[in-house]
């Protein structure tokens, strides 16, 4: 299968390869068929929860939707070389994207984008101040370590404030969201584990 450059293109290619219609993918994933169309044709990047549901419905890892190609050996990511894997925003009407230059969103920089067969998804994430993310939940676990700024984590009914050097590890099935806890962006290392 040829490498694709957006999650939408990869989803469309996987659907073609596996002979899965949008309607069937919608039924399997619980994601509206129109939203899948927008992801594939308009480049809409939803938050991680819908992408995880689509990946699971297609029987692939989340990384399969984000990777350009797979490397079987170790993958080294030097400082400043992390690839931007996408900007995810939750809570916008109809799953729309923020306008260009908008302060909203979480920007994910993949640290192991080319590693084949991995079970973890490591990222450096920039969390813009003022982003109004809604809570999401999905299978798996998440680990976050604060590199810069202040991180506000809402986990179920509990709220945490983390500073530089603090970390948190939690089950992703509990509704959660992460926000910048200050007036400047927060930067974190996030490792997501989702069972296949």
Notes on the protein architecture:
A hairpin with a 2-residue loop joins strand 5 and strand 6. The protein is of the alpha+beta class. It is globular and about 45 Å long. It has 2 domains: 7-66, lambda repressor-like DNA-binding domains (434 Repressor (Amino-terminal Domain), Orthogonal Bundle), CATH 1.10.260.40; 83-193, Jelly Rolls (Sandwich). It has a 6-stranded antiparallel sheet with strand order 1-2-3-9-4-7. The protein has a 3-stranded antiparallel sheet with strand order 6-5-8, with no helix packed on it. The two termini are 20 Å apart. Helix content is 23%, strand content 28%. It has 5 helices and 9 strands.
**Which residues form runs of ≥5 with pLDDT under 50?**
90-101
Order of helices and strands: HHHHHEEEEEEEEE
Q: How many E strands? A: 9
Radius of gyration: 16 Å
Averaged pLDDT, please?
A: 80
Widest β-sheet, arrangement of strands: 1-2-3-9-4-7
At CATH's second level, what is the architecture of the largest domain? Answer: Sandwich
CATH class of the largest domain: Mainly Beta
Structural class by sheet pairing and helices: alpha+beta
CATH domain fold name of the largest domain: Jelly Rolls
* Tally of helical runs: 5
Main beta-sheet annotation: 6 strands, antiparallel
**Fraction of helical residues:** 10-25%
Instruction: Tally the structural domains.
Output: 2
Distance between the termini: 20 Å
């Amino acid at each position: 299968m040829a490498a694709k450059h957006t999650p939408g293109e990869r989803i469309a290619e996987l659907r073609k390869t596996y002979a899965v219609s949008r309607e069937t993918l919608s039924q399997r994933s619980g994601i509206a068929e129109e939203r899948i169309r927008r992801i594939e044709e308009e480049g809409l990047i939803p938050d991680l929860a819908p992408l995880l549901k689509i990946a699971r419905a297609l029987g692939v890892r989340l990384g399969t939707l984000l990777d350009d190609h797979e490397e079987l050996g170790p993958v080294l990511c030097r400082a400043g070389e992390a690839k931007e894997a996408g900007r995810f925003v939750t809570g916008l009407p109809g799953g729309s994207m923020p306008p260009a230059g908008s302060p909203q969103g979480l920007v994910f920089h993949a640290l192991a984008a080319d590693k084949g067969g991995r079970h973890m998804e490591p990222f450096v994430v920039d969390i813009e101040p003022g982003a109004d993310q809604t809570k999401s939940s999905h299978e798996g676990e998440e680990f976050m370590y604060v590199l810069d700024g202040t991180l506000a984590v809402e986990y179920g009914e509990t709220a945490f404030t983390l500073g530089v050097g603090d970390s948190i590890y939690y089950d992703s099935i509990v509704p959660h969201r992460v926000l910048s806890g200050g007036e400047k962006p927060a930067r974190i290392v996030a490792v997501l584990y989702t069972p296949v």
